Amino acid sequence: MGMTGVFRHPEPAGAPVVAFDFDGTLTCRDSFVAFLTWRAGATAAAAGALRLLPAALTYAVRRDRGALKAAVADRLLGPVRRARLQADAQRFCDERYDSLMRSDAVACWDDWRRRGARLFIVTASPDILVAPFARRLAADGLIGTRLAFDREERFTGCLDGPNCRGPEKVSRLRAELGPTLTLQAAYGDTDGDREMLALAETPGLKVFTARP
Questions:
Q1: Which one, 37, 52, 92, 130, has the greatest CB density within 10 A?
Q2: pLDDT tens-digit readout, 184-194
């Protein structure tokens, strides 16, 4: 099973589709930063952040979030193999799920599930890291930023395609679900979600506030 696509059996074609951003919407903090800190340790993560100063200065000029994300991942993950990263992501989810997830967002997710909706997580975080959370939530699909791996399944330090933010969220949703897609509802918390929210009959910006 790939990181993007269906996690459960597809619902009937007429089932409403609801999309949730992940970081700051379903979670109370940035899961990518939390994962990198958890995996490397606070001291090593802080030291790595200092070495990322040139990348941060480049971002200040170019405003390229994808390039900055790739630089952060390259510095703090290194040439890790896909299977190891998947295993680490699963352990992170097992250990930190309860301390990351917003109870009111999960309640909304569960309510839409009871109403028969198809539920998608659409996130700028790497899909390989969010996948265990998506499986635990029984998501119908996960769309996220993809990390690039070489033929030996080692992380290359680059992204595989654009950062999944802003218009890219809409492009990826339509590639997955069809070019005429409209959403029954969508939830997000930043400007990077506005294009996705504009597809929804019921848009929700910063509606979840619960903290673990």
A1: 130
A2: 999 999 999 99
